Amino acid sequence: MYCLRSEPELSRAEQILRSARRQKVIQANVTLLGMEGDSDLQFLLQGGDLLKVLSPSWKKTRYFRLMEDCKTIWRESKRTFKDSQTFSLDDISSVRLGRQSEGLRKNTEDQVEGRCFSIMFKSRRKNLDLIASSEEEAKQWFNSLQKVLSNRNNLNIQQKTEHWISSCLRKADKNKDDKMTQSELKNFLRLINIKVDDDYAEMLFQKCDKSKSGHLSGEEIEHFYDLLTHREEIDVIYGAYAKTTGFMSSQNLVDFLKKEQREKATLADAHNIIQKHEPDENAKEKKLLSKDGFLIYMHYPETLVLKPDHREVYQDMSQPLNRYFISSSHNTYLMEDQLSGPSSTEAYVRALLKSCRCVELDVWDGSDNEPVIYHGYTLTSKILFRDAIKSIKEYAFKTSDYPVILSLENHCSVEQQEVMAHHLSSILGSALVTSPLGEGMPTDFPSPEELKGKFLIKGKRLNKLEASFAPEAAEADDADVTEEDESNNEDEDEQKEDEKRKKLKLAKELSGMVVYCKSVHFHSFEDARQNLSFYEMSSFKEQKALALAEESANSFIRHNVDKLSRIYPAGSRTDSSNYNPVPLWNAGCQLVALNFQTTCTDMDVNQGRFLVNGKSGYILKPAFLRDVDTEFDPITLTRGDWLKHKTLHVLVVSAQQLPKMNNKKFSFVDPLVKVQVYGVPADVAERQTVAVENNGFNPAWNESFQFDVYVPDLALVRFTIEDHDSTSGNEFIGQYTLPFNSLNMGYRQVPLLNKNGDVLSSAGLFVHIMVLDAE
Predict the structure, then answer these.
(1) Comparing C-alpha atoms, which of 575, 584, 487, 502 is closest to residue 543?
(2) How far apart are CA 533 and CA 443, in angstroms?
(3) Phi, psi of 118, deg, nearest 5
(4) Helices (DSSP H) in 501-656: which residue ranges?
(5) Which of 76, 271, 370, 587 has the largest CB neighbor count within 10 A?
(6) CA angle 132-136-141, nearest 5°?
(7) How does pLDDT run across 14-25, given as a tens digit for each residue?
(8) CA–CA gap between residue 440 and residue 101 (Å, rounded)
């Protein structure tokens, strides 16, 4: 490790002054993080040398340290500072100790295991694989980064906003003198995404320049900050209920919570809010809530648009597995497209951390008798089956404790199937379900609760499960079964189907691991009802499934009451694009598999469906999709218990701190908001606001929309913000999707997710939601 060097061109006095300013900046950010005197933070601020690993032969020393903003990591390679050599802590998804990345396992030896750690980034950015000089130092880096990341994640929206604005103020202060000229003020406004004309900038500057010195400093900058962050909409709401000499009394707060937020609030609840959020000790002692306290409260998680209890597991998890929608992935091993993209164990990790509960493994014979995973007959790269299973075991239950289904697309010889069975057994151990739970032949699926921490295999089986309980029953004549290759040839003419099926030899060891998810060919709903056992399931290509969902919806729904159905994208989607999963959920399909590596509206909607219930990856289907005698049809919408006509009122109030969509110096966001409802065809609707020109910092709309929702149990609501562009088309800024029944009523903050599904840390949308029974 080594300390920062002083720039030789600076005088001693300048060096001392710069050091003092740096310490002042650090102290402000340390205080914000609540880490005063913390040794882990000091370790990161000092920094040190680490070995960066790119290949077995490319390992080079780089110097890393946390910058003064306590948000940015700077790395140095050639003793020169470059902006391109920095990255934000907000870009980090996780830090892993040991050789846990694919790169470290491939490019380093076992003996450096304890000295290794990896920084994993959000989106498609490559991981940063590093080696410390000792095991102790590696643990220090790991623990320190984990602590700072945790503290940053625990900041509320207001604190993140303050941090972001402070960083922009420092960046605008070009000469680092802690003062702001009018030119620097305009530069700052541009940084935070506001375009103003010269007259307005001058007026704002003169209003704050109380000393008439030609620059802002100290309290003048604080006054400018207060003017900038003032939220008129919050003032209006607060003023309507602050009836006690300019403050909200406990009873005023109860009235607000009951009337506006539609919460069952008591005086005790109001006292707790005041105790937790009121910054003024005198007001707190009198059980009053000031405007500042109210603003702080309105930025906390309890005021988010998602119901607080729906963030945890709130549904009954003791029902049979087939009664749930299950988050499912297609070609999980791919990082990009289906033709030449890379395969990676990291793709499994990312899907599992997004609460995916059914992953696909496309397995083929590999060299040295080791099965490999890749997209057959393409140029996609290969990974070892063994490595994929190890990664799946490591990360399967990080986000959710509920069972993971391994969907095997088996193209291997009997010899390598035996190797597959060995790896599954030796790596997964007792967590792998290899026989029915309980005693005797089961008649129904076990529940997600009973299967917590367990793995199920979906694949081909030599015989019926019943044969396991009848020793005298004859084994299959040979080890041949008909293979339905879901990955290839799925769009060929139906008359060639018989020619394309081929006999696949099955290893008994692998066959015996298939218990509750035996793959079979689908002939018809009548055939399935007459001849298939509950554990025998079919996979449908998207075109076939969508046709059934439209033309035979009720039959498909009844089929899915008893059986599991898996839907997968068409083979023609070589770019790994996706399809709309909603019509398949409407038909009761449990495993609607999407390409998790592809960012798109369909994936956003999928993540919105599984946002709730503790992000468990399991959502209990509505009662009318679990009833064997159901008459529900999403197309015709005949009368029944599913019809619960609601009117959704949405007031789009304002947004805060929207990011620029490009790095052009004089580019500003012109935001507009779209509100969309997904569900049965009668519920599908979209409304949008006008665009606010040149203001991504605090745009306001105050536009109201109304939606009729007939089947709320299947509906989802999506809020999207776009940058309006009439010439080249609107550009996506952020979105948030959630189930209709999970909407919190009243004035609510809507978090915004970027195209990769990661939270935009300081950005948000402010709305008012009301759901009423339709007359």
Answers:
(1) 584
(2) 9
(3) -130, 140
(4) 508-511, 525-531, 542-551, 553-562, 582-586, 601-609
(5) 587
(6) 60
(7) 555 455 555 555
(8) 43
- Collapsed DSSP state (helix, strand, coil) of residue 175: coil
Residue (of 235, 208, 232) closest to 219 by Cα position = 208
Structure confidence by residue, pLDDT tens digits, 251-278: 999 999 999 999 999 999 999 999 999 9
CB 694 within 8 A of CB 757: no
Q: Where are the beta strands (DSSP E) in 350-394?
A: 358-364, 372-373, 383-384
Q: Residue 685 above 70 pLDDT? A: yes
Task: Tell me the C-alpha distance between 338 and 376, whole Å.
Answer: 9
Span 441-457, pLDDT tens digits: 999 999 999 999 999 99
End-to-end CA distance of the chain: 71
In the chain, what is the greatest distance between 2 CA atoms, to the nearest angstrom? 100
How many alpha carbons fall within 13 Å on the CB side of residue 389?
27
DSSP state of 710: S
User: What is the rounded CA–CA span in Å between residue 289 and residue 248?
Assistant: 5
Q: Which residues are CB-neighbours of 14 under 8 A, at least 6 positions away?
A: none
Distance CA 751, CA 560 (A): 34
The reply to whether 723 sits in an annotated binding site is: yes
> Cα separation of 615 and 606, whole Å?
12
539 is in an annotated binding site: yes
Q: How deeply is 403 buried, as exposed, middle or buried, from its count of CB atoms within 10 A (0-12, 13-18, 19+)?
A: buried
* CB-CB contact of 110 with 124 (8 Å): no
Whole-angstrom Cα distance, residue 289 to residue 303? 16
Query: pTM for the full model?
Result: 0.87
The annotation status of 362 as a binding-site residue, yes or no, is yes
User: Are the C-beta atoms of 642 and 713 separated by less than 8 Å?
Assistant: yes
- Residue 38 labelled as part of a binding site: no
**Tens-digit pLDDT profile for residues 571-595:** 899 899 999 999 999 999 999 999 9
What integer best gives the mean pLDDT of the chain? 88
Q: Are 475 and 643 in contact (CB under 8 A)?
A: no
Angle between helices 157-172 and 182-191 (to 10 degrees): 140
Q: Can you give the pLDDT at residue 528?
A: 95
- Residues with a catalytic annotation lie at 330, 375
Q: Are 670 and 725 in contact (CB under 8 A)?
A: yes
How far is residue 447's CA from residue 572's CA, in Å, rounded to a whole number?
35
pLDDT, tens only, 496-527: 444 444 567 899 999 999 999 999 999 999 99
